[in-house]
Write a structure and sequence with these properties.
This protein is mainly α and 137 residues long. 75% of the residues lie in helices and 3% in strands. It is elongated, with a radius of gyration of 17 Å.
């Protein structure tokens, strides 16, 4: 027999699962791109050339998702209107950040690979919000 979980417990259960899956997906995408010879040297505006490595991919997958969950949790406890607000914010952040690789490199394959790495975290975050709201009824 299952016991009812709190909204916060559901959020973290689904959120941590989605974060792990997004991390796995991004590391697989990154590894595949590396195997295909995609260069991961970038030069963000105002900075020198940098290599995007495994640690960068992991950190920039996990941190935004956990930050989003940490911001969503208290707001969701106050109002169910947090759901559409955070859906919109997640999509807006995705749209804004999906174009960041275009400012960091001229290499088309690098731009594509880095842009694709934005999809799993956003999809995982949106899946988490959807599952929590569905479970809460």
């Amino acid at each position: 027999m299952r016991t009812a979980q709190s909204p916060l417990g559901l959020l973290w259960r689904f959120g941590l699962r989605a974060t792990g899956l997004a991390l796995l997906a991004n590391l697989l995408l990154y590894g595949l791109a590396r195997l295909l010879g995609v260069p991961f040297e970038v030069s963000p505006p105002g900075q020198g050339t940098q290599e995007v490595g495994w640690a960068n991919v992991a950190l920039l997958t996990v941190l935004p998702m956990l930050l989003g969950l940490a911001l969503y949790a208290p707001l969701r406890q106050r109002t169910p209107k947090a759901f559409p607000l955070f859906q919109g914010l997640a999509l807006l952040v995705f749209l804004l950040l999906a174009f960041a690789p275009f400012a960091a490199t001229e290499e088309g394959s690098t731009r594509l690979a880095l842009s694709l790495l934005h999809i799993p975290p956003v999809a995982g975050f949106l899946w988490t919000l959807h599952r929590v709201e569905k479970a809460l009824g």
